[in-house]
Amino acid sequence: GENVEQHPSTLSVQEGDSAVIKCTYSDSASNYFPWYKQELGKRPQLIIDIRSNVGEKKDQRIAVTLNKTAKHFSLHITETQPEDSAVYFCAASRVITGFQKLVFGTGTRLLVSP
Amino acid sequence: DGGITQSPKYLFRKEGQNVTLSCEQNLNHDAMYWYRQDPGQGLRLIYYSQIVNDFQKGDIAEGYSVSREKKESFPLTVTSAQKNPTAFYLCASRTRDRGPNQPQHFGDGTRLSIL
Q1: N or C: which end of chain B has fewer CB within 10 A?
Q2: Which residues on adjacent β-strands are paired with residue A66?
Q3: Do A98 and B50 touch (CB under 8 A)?
Q4: pLDDT tens-digit profile of B20-42?
Q5: A-B interface: how many C-beta pairs under 8 angstroms?
Q6: Cβ-Cβ contacts under 8 Å, A96 against chain B
Q7: A112, A84 in Cβ contact below 8 A?
Q8: What is the DSSP string of B45-110?
Q9: Contact present, B98 and B85 (Cβ < 8 Å)
Q10: pLDDT at residue A52 in the model
Q11: Is A83 helix (H, G, I), strand (E, B) or coil?
Q12: What average pLDDT does the segment A52-60 reach?
């Protein structure tokens, strides 16, 4: 089955710096890759997603890149702010008989210091 | 997302007791999911349902049961057979319109602990 590895497990940056979180996946048939942000005790919230027919997607300070050949995708946050501090999860999915199964990475705790 | 409501927010289970976690959505989504989240781990799939009156086991279904009698509701029962139920439980839903790769949206979660 699909396996998703996520690195690093923790990441500390200064406000204004960039942060990069990387994920690799094992199933070459995976075709959808969402990223979720989860604040302590709260629900995961979708921040950006990318489909396999696209190599890069950007939304203001957030961007995601996908390398299908190498089976890895990355989240880039520029000009980080203290409110970006949270746990970030990547996920990969393929559709099996109409069912979307998301496999999640183990999360990256991002701390942005003022 | 305001459209997915989980209750209660906190729940305590005694030994040998079954407890039921509620998940209701008003997003008109066909697909619903239950995940378990443990510290330092990603979300793991317990059960999913693509349509009313149908549901399938996920990766860690042992000790859990579900029902899907209404489109809006997908309750999860944690049975006494689940020996390590302490975790944060998240319900999610997804539209099946506009193709298969639509995002899942989550409720606020229920934190279950053992008394």
Answers
A1: C
A2: A73
A3: yes
A4: 999 999 999 999 999 999 987 88
A5: 66
A6: none
A7: yes
A8: EEEEEEETTEEEE-TT-TTEEE--SBTTB--EEE-TT-S---EEEEEEEE--TT-S----EE---E
A9: no
A10: 85
A11: helix
A12: 91
All residues of chain A having their beta carbon less than 8 Å from the beta carbon of residue B108 are: 42-43
In the predicted structure, residue A61 carries a pLDDT above the cut 90: yes
Q: Amino acid identity of A40?
A: L
Residue that has been written with the tokens 């690093």 in this structure: A8
A92, A32 contact by CB (below 8 A): yes
- Nearest CA-CA distance, residue B114 and chain A, Å: 18
Query: What span, in angstroms and rounded, lies between the C-alpha atoms of B114 and A94?
Result: 35
Candidates B88, B101, B113, partner chain A, best to mutate (most A CBs within 10 A)? B101
Residue entry with tokens 């997003």: B27
pLDDT of B2 reads 56
Query: Per the structure block, which two tokens stand in for A45?
Result: 């919230």
Amino acid sitting at position B66? V
CB atoms within 10 A of CB A57: 15
**CA distance linking residue A46 with residue A48, whole number of Å:** 6
Does A107 sit within 8 Å of B106, measured CB to CB? Answer: no
Tell me if residue A84 falls in helix, strand or coil: helix
| Token pair listed for B22 | 């509620």
The verdict on a CB contact (< 8 Å) between B50 and A104 is no
